[in-house]
Amino acid sequence: MSSNKIILRIRGLVKKYKLPGRELVVLNGIDLDVGEEFVSILGPSGCGKSTLLKIIAGVEKPDGGAVEFYISNTPRIGFVFQSPTLLPWMTVRGNVMLPLIAKGVREEEARERARRALTLVGLAEFEDFYPHELSGGMKQRVNIARALAVEPDILLLDEPFSNLDPLTAESLRSEVVDLWLSNVLPIKAIIMVTHNVEEAVLMSDKVVILSPRPARVIREVRIDLPRPRSRKMVEVQKLVDEVYEYVSQ
To answer: For the chain, where do the domains classified as CATH 3.40.50.300 start and end?
Structure first.
């Protein structure tokens, strides 16, 4: 699904935080082009990966540089957080409807879009359940469904599988890639922050590696392997070793 068409262009991105008596520079001149592709962002803990996602989403403002979209002036952004962040007093359906209602979508349409998103993640039968009745993997599926319900142009994933057991994480990774490849949604690009090098190689078209803070892009690695991919593939292990080498520099 990768193409040369630019969806998002970032140039000279700078982010600073004011601390008592000093200034902490987190991002220092990030340059990045994202096409119609699945991009993973790797880097040391605390280097600003999640901050970069929040700036792309418009949740945080940069202190310098530019973020330009080439799909529309107000692209639809879906954001999947590391933890499900579900409201415990609302049903699964209500949690998925929430961002739609907040955007002014009529309740009937919001309900239908929520059901469609829950069907895509295999939770159609659980729409009337409450978060405390779900497993960790099911909660994260609701989290993903909520992001899909807005029918995003760009889907942002902030370490979405890191709190799951290995088997559940593997299953969800496959489901996300299948959704991405199926074209059932208008998603033009997926950008995922992860610490898991193997996960990045298995899922992505491109891996972007950030330096320690203050972060800048030090390497981009294309993953031109056919899907589905397996960790047992020699080509996958070779790329995992290559990316590990860059990350550990």
So the answer is: 6-76+154-247
The CATH architecture assigned to 6-76+154-247 reads 3-Layer(aba) Sandwich (3.40)
Please state, in angstroms and as integers, the Cα–Cα distance from residue 210 to each residue in 139, 173, 223, 237, 246, following that order: 30, 22, 17, 21, 9
197: phi > 0 → left, psi -120 to 50 → alpha, else beta; which? alpha
Q: What length does the chain have?
A: 249
pLDDT at residue 50 tops 60: yes
Residue type, 46: G
pLDDT in tens, 145-172: 999 999 999 999 999 888 888 888 888 8
Query: What is the C-alpha separation between 130 and 3, in angstroms, rounded?
Result: 40
Which one, of 96, 135, 140, lies nearest residue 118 by Cα?
96
Task: Kindly report the number of other CB atoms within 10 A of residue 3's CB atom.
Answer: 12
Average pLDDT over residues 123-143: 92
**pLDDT tier, 2 (very low <50, low <70, confident <90, very high otherwise):** low
